[in-house]
Design brief:
- The structure is a single chain.
- Strands 1, 2, 3, 4, 5 and 6 form a 6-stranded mixed beta sheet that branches. A 5-stranded mixed beta sheet has the order 14-15-16-17-21, with no helix packed on it.
- The chain folds into 2 domains: 11-93, Ubiquitin-like (UB roll); 100-254 and 261-447, YVTN repeat-like/Quinoprotein amine dehydrogenase (Methylamine Dehydrogenase, Chain H, 7 Propeller).
- Helix content is 7%, strand content 46%.
- The protein is mainly beta.
- It contains 4 helices and 37 strands.
- Component of the NOP7 complex, composed of ERB1, NOP7 and YTM1. Within the NOP7 complex ERB1 appears to interact directly with NOP7 and YTM1. The NOP7 complex also associates with the 66S pre-ribosome.
């Protein structure tokens, strides 16, 4: 129906538009009248008709930056608008539901996940070596494992004497791990292809131990541009490190009596060898929290700035040049996870109150925007390649896909497991692999990577 025709009380005048990646706008040539009873499906039919698409595609619709989850009528009533209002609807390709792909068994609870995509590395004699996508996990059995995207364990690394709580790739052959044994380990693995896999899967080594924390090291973050590492601990402190050991001062060797208390013979042998490994102290220590630190992250645009969250209910901003806390925002709940959303200047925090909170670190007060849907602690958050989307993992046994422009989850991922009350401890997203989640069911689960862009 054209704009020159008369509308009825059951219709409203709208204009559709979309944005390119460079933020340029593309609008429908003229406003049109549409029924107020339309929801996403009916609106998608109209847009497909306007675009003259050969294969109809599903779309999401936004009004004033908020995703439309109801019909037009309910939106008008909720916002006190009449059918005489003129609405501008932004449309964008809908995210398809993530499908279950596979689930890989592990020996114990999986507490942390990281991933890295395929890369081209310089080999010997000027050759280029291609690496495939890999998944790095830390487990409650103290073992660090590297899976390929088919679920085969390529590398197993023993060294931690207690559960591993956080893992991060530096490169396909270097990574960092930390855990309840208070240690942070820098690892080197020689695995490039299947031919390089050692028969006993003990195909890597710790080349530096980062020693400072007096309790569980619960979280790590990495800035590849500056080669800096942040660690957060249950001793309430945060430490700043380098991925290059020679940039840090040496420490005294580990006490062998502590080493030999390990119950595992293999771990005991490895731990004895730890006495010969370089032990390094932090470049700086950040003290201000009054309870366990649960999340740390570098600022996406300024490597001299970092953020942290803690069970003391606070979000803190740190100046890494001076090692000082420059801002503290108080909340009403323990904060258990943290992720920075790329290009959005937004921090997402998971809480003990079961919701996800969105904060602008530049704002003078804590923002109150919340994502609601989990029914237990939100302990893990992961960003995607879409500025508006993130993944969450919770002790309620689910992972959820969110668009921050709506306060309800787009999709919920349940466990493909026989264990009815399993908890999700870790989530991660990788374009070449998909949505990864893991927890107390001892499984690494992969769901398809929805088209986030």
């Amino acid at each position: 129906m054209s704009e020159t025709e008369n509308a009825t009380k059951d219709q409203v005048k709208v204009r559709f538009f979309t944005r390119d990646e460079d933020e340029s706008l593309h609008c429908s040539p003229n406003p049109i009248y549409i029924p107020v009873t339309l929801k996403r499906f009916g609106l998608s039919e109209i847009v497909n008709h306007l675009l003259k698409t050969e294969t109809p595609a599903p779309f999401e619709f936004l009004i004033d930056g908020t995703i439309l989850k109801t019909d037009i009528q309910e939106y008008l009533v909720k916002n006190g608008l009449s059918t005489e209002a003129f609405l501008t609807l932004e449309y964008t390709r809908a995210v398809l539901p993530p499908k279950f792909l596979s689930s890989f068994n592990n020996e114990d609870w999986i507490s942390s996940i990281d991933s890295i995509g395929s890369m081209e590395l310089a080999g010997g004699n000027g050759e280029t070596i291609s690496t495939a996508p890999k998944i790095l996990t830390g487990s409650y059995d103290g073992i660090v494992r590297i899976y390929n995207s088919s679920g085969k364990v390529e590398t197993q690394l023993a060294g931690h004497s207690q559960p591993v709580k956080s893992v991060k790739f530096i490169s396909p052959t270097r990574f960092i791990t930390a855990g309840m044994d208070r240690t942070i380990r820098l690892w080197r693995s020689g695995v490039i292809s299947d031919e390089d896999i050692d028969k006993d899967t003990q195909n890597g080594s710790t080349f530096a131990l980062l020693d400072y924390h007096k309790s569980t090291v619960s979280t790590l973050d990495l800035n590849l541009k500056t080669n800096r590492i942040l660690s957060g601990s249950y001793d309430h402190s945060i430490a700043l490190w380098s991925t290059t050991p020679k940039e840090m001062n040496s420490c005294d060797p580990i006490d062998s009596s502590t080493v030999l208390s390990s119950a595992s013979r293999k771990r005991m042998k490895l731990a004895v060898k730890d006495s010969t490994i370089k032990r390094k102290s932090p470049l700086a220590v950040l003290d201000s929290h009054h309870a366990p630190v649960e999340g740390v992250t570098f600022d996406q645009n300024d490597s001299t700035i970092a953020y942290s969250v803690s069970q003391d209910h606070t979000i803190k901003t740190w100046d890494l040049v001076t090692a000082r806390c420059v801002d503290t925002k108080q909340t009403n709940y323990s904060l258990l996870s943290l992720v920075a959303l790329r290009n959005m200047n937004i921090l997402a925090t998971g809480s003990s109150a079961r919701h996800i909170n969105l904060h602008d670190p530049r704002a003078s007060k804590v923002t109150t925007s919340q994502l609601l849907g989990h029914t237990n602690f939100v302990v893990s958050l992961a960003a995607t390649d879409n500025d508006y989307m993130l993944i969450s993992g919770s002790h309620d046994g689910t992972a959820k896909v969110w668009d921050i422009r709506a306060n309800k989850a787009m999709y919920t991922i349940t466990r493909n497991s026989e264990e009815p009350k399993s908890k999700v401890f870790a989530v991660k997203w990788e374009k070449e692999i998909g949505i990864m989640s893991a927890g107390s069911d001892k499984k690494l689960q992969i769901n398809s990577s929805a088209e986030f862009k």
